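HOLO CASE FILE
Compound: zinc ion
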Amino acid sequence: MNTLYRYAIAALTMLLLSACADKVESLGIVPYPENVEIGCGSFDAFGAKVIAEGLTAEEEDLVQGLGTLITAGSDGKVRSSKIVFSHIDGMDPEEYAIEIGSRRIEVYSSAYNGTLYAIATLKQLMPVEVYTGVYNPDADWNIPCAVIKDKPRFAHRGMLLDCSRHFFEIDEVKKILDIMSVYKLNRFHWHLTDDHGWRMEIKKYPLLTEVGGWRNGTMIGWDAKSNDGIRYGGYYTQEQLRDVVAYAAQRGIEIVPEIDLPAHMVSALTAYPHLGCTGGPYSLMTVWDIAKDVLCVGKDSSFEFIEDVLTEVCEVFPYEYIHIGGDECPKIRWEKCPHCQARIKELGLKDSGKWTAEHYLQNYVTARVQKFLASKGRKVIGWDEILEGDLQPGATIMSWRGVQGGIEAANNGFDAIMTPCEYCYLNYCQSDKPELEPVGFHEYVPVEKCYGYEPLDGIPEDAHHHILGVQCNVWTEFIGTPAHVQYMLLPRMLAISEVQWSAPEDKDYDRFRADVMDHQFEILKSMGYTYCKEIEY
Ligand code: ACM
Ligand code: ZN
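Model generated. Tokens follow.
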């Protein structure tokens, strides 16, 4: 941040802090910004002129988009009030500052995401019409004078959607990206493959989606002996996936694709049975359970398959991280498989007392895939099971079975993303009365619990830098419709957004809850989302 800018902010802050009668208490912004100073008076944003000075072409598009929204319903009168966007060297790429005076708003950033987030904040200060484009002549367009300086606490602010257990159309995925960008989330973890359906077109292996994309029915509720008899499935073409990548990029979001391996692969084994230890036949799972059948990692052809698939994944998804799963891998097929046992012998893997030879075989798989992806300039993320045994440097851990995986990772020099199920699994109930909730997992994770999560608890200070961020996950075993996904996500994702973005000392559940009920629910409603109202009771 340059000195001139610091002085400008300091001077305006002094000006604004003078006592006045009409000062509002809260700006109602979620996630709460790093620094907010509320002053006297207000800026009438209706029909204000929006100006971009020295921004990139992509940022100019964003700024013009805002201009269109705030002048679309205008009465045509020329106004002298202005919102001026410019760059300041030295600000972080996701940082921004907004000085709201009564005639002019100055917006500062240094890069695309900072500009995007400044606009996201400004929109939260305006009537909900900026989300709908439907104009109400009585709306109040006055924004309180204030100085906002803001940047995120964590770099990875993620949300996972499981599109294997249930398939969601591209437009529904885009609606998730839309709401993520309102709350400044910047990583969409796309769970594209699992035992219940393979969702990404892979040109070299067409049966992955032709066969692996479709299952013969689904269990009903919790009854594992039942089947609804409805063939279920779907998949995304590479063209559709590329379109979503571009759509996400416009919203400041990178996509982390997940190809879950070496377990959670029954959809691939059903399509190509030679990839399994027993040779099959296999069929896609129709019940919510952990499959015993996993990839046979004794055969070189399995690695050829994985490398071919990941090559196409890298062609479609440009983000430097690829998620390679690694969770819930039963070892019983490997224990009996001659190919896997031959591989164990060839590698000289032995039980260590703590971990079995088969655990070390999984380490071998992780390391081999990690090396392959490194040759393409990519890094891997894996679920916390990949820590069991020996993990090669450079892998990032996603801590899901509680916080312990993240703590252990950071203590051992690995980066970690925290998504502990007890705080961040949004497929769990929001109410302590599960009988009043849609059928699903019974664990109870209310909004307040999500909000109270502190991701650096238990991490020594000299390892804090290893915690890249926090993510909420929506697994969809029991979630079959877009409205149900939204209901599980909202408003808990807003609570998680403050865990991801805001400084712990700025968090305040009472303020958050009031802001959600007073204004954020209005935004969600105006944008047409379904959300849970439990927070009101
Ligand atoms: C997971 O929930 N199995 C990562
Ligand atoms: Zn095998």
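CASE NOTES: The chain has a mean pLDDT of 95. The two ends are 44 Å apart (CA to CA).
CLOSED: yes
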